[in-house]
Amino acid sequence: MFELIQAAPPDPILGLGEAFRNDPRTDKINLSVGVFQDDDGRTPMLACVKEAERRLLERETNKNYLGIDGHVEFRRRTAELLLGVDSAAIAQSRVATVQSPGGTGALRIAADLIGRQFPGATVWISQPTWPNHPQIFQAAGLLTASHPYLDAAGTGLDLDAMLRTLETARPGDALLLHASCHNPSGIDPDATQWERISNFVRERGLLPILDCAYQGFGRGLDEDVVGVRRLAESGETLICSSCSKNFGLYGERVGALTIVASDADAAKATGSQAKACVRANYSNPPIHGAAVVAEILGDATLTAQWHDELAAMRRRIHAMRQAFVAAMAARVPNRDFSFIADQLGMFSFSGLTPMQVDRLKSEYGIYIVGSGRINVAGITRGNLDRLCDAIATVL
Ligand code: LMR
Q1: Residue 245 is among the residues annotated as catalytic for this protein
Q2: Whole-structure pTM value
């Protein structure tokens, strides 16, 4: 039977990581997968994570299963981080959080939940988006549709065009929004635009799903969830969050689906349906990463240390954005890259064509995603010149 199966194409992002690892060139540069690197090109383990693990190692007495919805303290702290400690929804018990294997796991639980409860819903997704988004919702049997996001230059948000297309959405459809650090463009709505999106969603009866994978990587922990909080204040909302980037816990697969409902009974019932999706999928989530996050967020000293380490990662990315813009201006003065300095998070759309991306890989061992998305967090003082020389040549 397996002889009849055709090979799947490589994943547009993770497939590049495999190709990079197999590339024998010693001066190769990986700007593909969204993983933070320090200025030495290493992905560090946060010191607060190391300390939390040390404490857990001393204290842990078993590796029992977690409940279907995961680590109790992790879930509580996650909801507070997203919605704020003074959130009215939390105080009114209108929130249910289910731990998930990473942000992707959270998106898949959300997709399964919608697929089971509202099977006719279409999920609207920005064009461009993270390539995994459509397939996660399609895998749950849902239809997806796309709306425009960027302006013609590709360097700003065209909210009018986005909402014009969304006028064709039907009540009960879902709208997937990037909470901050839009992947792949790094272009986010401002507070006024979030207000407009929130009013639009409620007027039209759409269900907002916030993908929150980069909290703290844009402007700050609270600043990056302005849209999440606005939408959660305005009505029913699903939030899919990840601790991969902001805690550097990539391989531990730590994330959560947070459901904000209109009353406590609805939160309980919807949360129980999310648990049913989990049980039928992977039974219950892994313990270690969630215990680490709970340990950090439950201790004032470790939390302060985490804030500092997160701010340092954020500052490094901002600094690399500025260095990249300056280095490109020196090499290709007639092409404006200044927009890259204004964008937020790990990624920017470079505007490079697929052919130029291909040349960077084959001739220079520089790996970026085919859409032209650059992981700015992979640029270092050590690889900046070589990178910009190569880009200038292919341009
Ligand atoms: C990315 O967009 O590079 C990250 O979110 C990692 C992934 O799973 O694709």
Answers
A1: yes
A2: 0.96
